[in-house]
Amino acid sequence: MSDVHDTSQNVRVRRCETGDDVARAAAAAFVEAVVAAQHARGRASVVLTGGGTGIAVLDAVLRAPGGIDWSAVDVYFGDERYLPPGDPERNEVQARAALLDHVPLDPARVHAMPTLDEAGAGSPDSAARTYEEVLAANSPDGTTPEFDVHLLGMGGEGHINSLFPHTDAVREQDRFVVGVEDSPKPPAARVTLTLPAIRRARQVWLLVTGAAKAEAVAAAVGGAAPVDVPAAGARGREQTVWFLDAEAAAALPAD
Fold first, then answer.
1. How far apart, in whole angstroms, are the C-alpha atoms of residue 16 and residue 229?
2. In 3-state terms, what secondary structure has residue 180?
3. What is the rounded average pLDDT of the residues 207-214?
4. Cβ-based burial of 88 (10 A; exposed 0-12, middle 13-18, buried ≥19)
5. Prediction pTM value
6. If you average pLDDT over residues 119-142, what whole number do you get?
């Protein structure tokens, strides 16, 4: 593994050989960041992502949790499929199976996005507004928490959370959570944190594997417009880290 630093934007690229290496490296860094936050502030606040690599990171954390005090961790989600409770396609359900149900978290500090049933006759937008209220209630300034780590996956076209290219959601500059009715990736109905919410995180980590994503990685790291490549707009207040396998990093300049 090698690190490449872009000090002008506080961006680091961590190149790993395989997807398994990405999961292990990100998991080790996650444990370190959570423990450091707890030492500094008495608690840690994290945003989880779904997808194969995101869930693999949670699996790896479960195998080597280090010194995390799980009772002092607040868990949020970057996006969610607007489906009934318990649906196996929900990121929350997958995260619980991989990690959350196996560690002594305070249930009140696992902040899942509303389900289809919980919203009743509502909509993704009403669910988004409900989640904005959750964020505000857990923020010192009544807006959204300053997350310690926000994990992100990325699609082949550069989408993150449920922020897809050339959509209203990726253009949103005022709200922290929005509903999506027409996701190009099924299911169409989703709830997602926006770029302003992502940018509240101290650290933003993008977990990307596979050759199909190499061009989008290069575009995002190279400073593409976020409306074209949403991942380009994912920036942490202190640091942004790309965890890449060899295939995903193939279009980046050599060290």
1. 23
2. strand
3. 99
4. exposed
5. 0.95
6. 90
